[in-house]
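Progress narrative, Year 2. Work on Phosphatase PAP2 family protein from Pendulispora rubella advanced from sequence curation to structure prediction during this period.
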Amino acid sequence: MLAVQLFFCSLTTEAGAEPSVRGPAHKLRLELDLPIVLVAGSIASSFFFLPEARGVACAPNCDRSRINRFDRAAAGLYDPTWSTVGDIATVATLAVPLVAIVVDEGLENGLRDDLVVAEAMLVTSALQVSVSYAVGRPRPRVYGDDAPLDERTDANAARSFFSGHVADTVATSVAGLRTFQRLGKPTLGWVLFGVGIAGSSLVGLSRVASGAHFPSDVIAGAAIGTGMGLVLPAIHESGVQMLPFVGADGGGLMVGGRLP
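Result:
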């Protein structure tokens, strides 16, 4: 419920006049930012333990007739060149708002606001890793013979939903827009947002053409990235507090949020 409240709060703020501040646009607080970075970073980094996860049950050749009609045309695609294009486009798109903020605000204030934009990307990555492990959707390349056998049978082949590359680039683009709106520079923010969405579109196209994701994975990634790009700046503007606590069964440490 907290995330939903902050999401609609950010939309309401965007519709009205945005206050002009000298910078930084977002207030950093140790009790908020440290849990976000530590928890999201820990979950997102679990990607490096990917080989320990399960692979695709139907590999090495899955039945494409089981794919929904919207995604079926992408089943079996595989092109390493498009994968390289997507990686380059992802790095460039992620860098655009981060560099622009530092150039506009200066190093000290810019890095503070960059942390909030980076948190939007980090939380999005953590969510993508969690969902992809839970869903276990086979990637398009598993439905054909073009990809090498090891790329159709490893654990990474079972993590199609949703596109983390697209989600991350959209999240940083939206968070960058919110940052410049907060600074009272909406025109610059929208220009950079347009560049970010163009880059994200190229990333999405490349992820489908390379055989890494279905179109629905890309659309879901864009939607989730938009949400995280709105929510993370809104959390910093709202004064919400993030507090660690132990579950009732003593099974582990959790982090909860509350509005002041």
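The longest helix spans residues 107-135. The first strand starts at residue 241 and ends at 246.
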